[in-house]
Amino acid sequence: MLHYAVVFMVIALVAALFGFGGIAAGAVEIAKILFFVFVVMAVVAFAIGLVKKR
């Protein structure tokens, strides 16, 4: 999941470099969503791991 967020961020940077503002903005939004989904899933997995240790 984090890999896809990084890929979309790179796409956004390249699009912005070449002047495609709309595509860059869309790719940034997708990257943000994927990153936050990754963070939530990581926190949930960490919490489940702590609960299972007890």
Summarize this, please?
The protein has 54 residues and is mainly α. It contains two helices and no strands.
Describe this structure in words.
There is one protein chain. By secondary structure, the protein is mainly α. It has one domain. 91% of the residues lie in helices and 0% in strands. The protein is built from two helices and no strands. Helix 1 (2-17) runs antiparallel to helix 2. The radius of gyration is 15 Å and the shape is rod-shaped. The mean pLDDT is 90.
Instruction: Report the radius of gyration as a whole number of Å.
Output: 15 Å
**Domain unit count:** 1
Number of strands: 0
Mean pLDDT, all residues? 90
Helix content bin: over 70%
Describe the secondary structure blueprint for this structure.
Elements: H1 2-17, H2 21-53
Helix pairs in contact: 1-2
Defining key terms:
mainly alpha; 54 residues; cell membrane; rod-shaped; single chain; 2 helices; 0% strand; 91% helix
